[in-house]
Amino acid sequence: MATRGNGxxxxxxxxxxxRRAGVSVGTVSNVLNRPEQVTPATRxxxxxxxxxxxxxxNASARQLRAGTIRTVGAIVLDIANPFFTEVARGxxxxxxxxxxxxxxxxxxxxxEREARYxxxxxxxxxxxxxxxxxxxxxxxxxxxxxxxxxxxLLDATSDVEDVSSVGVDDVRGAALAxxxxxxxxxxxxxxxxGPDSIRQCVDRRAGVVSALLAAGxxxxxxLTEVTVGSLNADAGEKAMNxxxxxDAARRPTATFCVNDFTALGALRALRWADVRVxxxxxxxxxxDVVIAPMLTVPLTSVHQPTHxxxxxxxxxxxxxxxxxxxxxxxxVLFQPELxxxxxxxxx
Amino acid sequence: MATRGNGxxxxxxxxxxxRRAGVSVGTVSNVLNRPEQVTPATRxxxxxxxxxxxxxxNASARQLRAGTIRTVGAIVLDIANPFFTEVARGxxxxxxxxxxxxxxxxxxxxxEREARYxxxxxxxxxxxxxxxxxxxxxxxxxxxxxxxxxxxLLDATSDVEDVSSVGVDDVRGAALAxxxxxxxxxxxxxxxxGPDSIRQCVDRRAGVVSALLAAGxxxxxxLTEVTVGSLNADAGEKAMNxxxxxDAARRPTATFCVNDFTALGALRALRWADVRVxxxxxxxxxxDVVIAPMLTVPLTSVHQPTHxxxxxxxxxxxxxxxxxxxxxxxxVLFQPELxxxxxxxxx
DNA sequence: CAGTGGTCATGAATCGTTTCAAGGACGAAA
DNA sequence: TTTCGTCCTTGAAACGATTCATGACCACTG
Lengths: 347, 347
Description:
2 copies of one chain form a homodimer.
Chain A: H1 14-21, H2 25-33, H3 40-53, H4 59-66, E1 71-76, H5 82-95, E2 101-106, H6 111-124, E3 128-131, H7 138-146, E4 150-154, E5 164-168, H8 170-183, E6 189-193, H9 199-214, H10 219-222, E7 223-227, H11 233-244, E8 254-257, H12 260-272, E9 282-287, E10 300-303, H13 306-322, E11 331-334, E12 337-339, H14 342-345
Parallel strand pairs in A: 1-2, 1-3, 3-4, 4-5, 5-11, 6-7, 6-8, 8-9, 9-10
Antiparallel strand pairs in A: 10-12
Helix pairs in contact in A: 1-2, 1-3, 5-13, 8-9, 11-12
Chain A binds a DNA duplex through residues 13-15, 23-30, 32-33, 37-39, 42, 57-67.
């Protein structure tokens, strides 16, 4: 068998198939791409040759000539983060039926890493990219479009007009949580929030405040905000202990946590302080992580349509790719949903 | 600017760069691949042209000629599963410094889906694939190697001799959990396990039994096994309630759950029945999911080196790819680790 | 029987890169 | 001045598929 220098067998090419079937390469190509234009007899002969040789198309050669490739690149902040994991799954589910492949990487919010992957994807000639932009990388991303590469921003509510993006309305999500607590009659509400350097924290605070105002409350009266440095359980526990320092008659009767991890910590603090949930303290989280319903006290949380988010992003991209001429850019903002469980409406 | 029929600008090629810099294409290629062989003056001229034109290499043409491509394909059972997510991150972290790209898909344990992705990857000419094989797909995977594609099995303790694989020792992991409980003095241990159709369940049972035997105990005396149909919290809760049906004097004093989700359910049942953890019932999970330490009662669990698993799999693959001639196949089995927390050793 | 139309198969050109034998320029040595 | 040798650069041939103008062949029609 022919080799390619490194001793590995060369994979059979369309030429080998043609020779074996006694036809020309053009015919083999026709069998592969326009089978109806080939006589059944010939077609079968070619098919047989293909199977005997274990012929597999060479995507590179194909793309080189045809100019297109059924591949999409995605760059998320961190594949190991459940949020992006579910988004990725949504992307995949949109791509699979169209036989597209997905190239996936994590930027870790490092613009340099992101740029490197973008270039790699561009070299590969992907049809488009789905990106969660890091700080200040938007410009480079948009430049891709001038070189014929589709772009859809993931989980970014961009100010830029002419680029498609998908995101979830964090302001609304937080408002939902607070509205729920108000409806339950809570008049002193705590908000355990993270630093302003995280967009989500800023948006969610805005949602909290707007919900209070919309209900005719003065945030200064109702709201106690505790800011933590990082969004994990330990921080949440510490924050809740701080809240519990106030005597029971004057402390908040409900707490909204900026994410489920901090809520878990808060829950732990409540348990150790023997404060009953939700009777003495109602609790709402955000993200609706997979274990939220599995907890000893199932956690009320704001659910984000992550799968749909990814699916839609991929859908927009494929649509733009197949659109003739000018493309209409869409900016989709999904609405989160409050999932009420025992931690607020316990029975 | 030149177009390619669909109205999008054609990306500049090496020829365009050559023309602009007033050199031949060969020289441009040399600048890109063997810069030391080019006079600094020429090199700079070419570099300038590259930047002015925003030239980006065409990976397809490159691969077509050079025969190689820095891409690896991975097929896991489900990207949305945290286990595989962390594995994927490990793979990525191994590939990134070598400028490899990762193509990632989920097979959902469907051999047909898996086969489709394998073919897609093969068409793309990936250097190798990392696969968690579905039922009965091993043969097709191994056939790839005859066509020059590297293969490393992920999370599979394969019986096949001559293929590299990485996995985690589930037998040992379960044994660790049981040894721990025995050391704490527990003499009646429950094991909430899943169906035998799942390999992990079978392996972990074997580990439980072997640990008991090794300690000179008769499993028939010590062990109470409850089998659940699916590995989620509700099933775990039900199983634990069943165990609690026995009067306190004779029921198990410790429970080992086949994964953390069932353990969460068990924990919930214990809380509602007002059984103190770990005093009246110790609890061990498996997987060490991210929230295990965040729980009200932090959960003792068996931790698997998922990131390392992925990293090592990718490492084996790259090594095999760069190895000259015959490759030595390695089968790496990682050892899990018990992380002791309050749910067994509570203060 | 010539003419027409339609169906299939052909083979050369093409995509953008890498590679390599061959040639050019230039300086050093004789 | 001639002759080498060295160092850069060149240009054409590949890689494997797709595409398309061309032509072969056959069946009808008039």
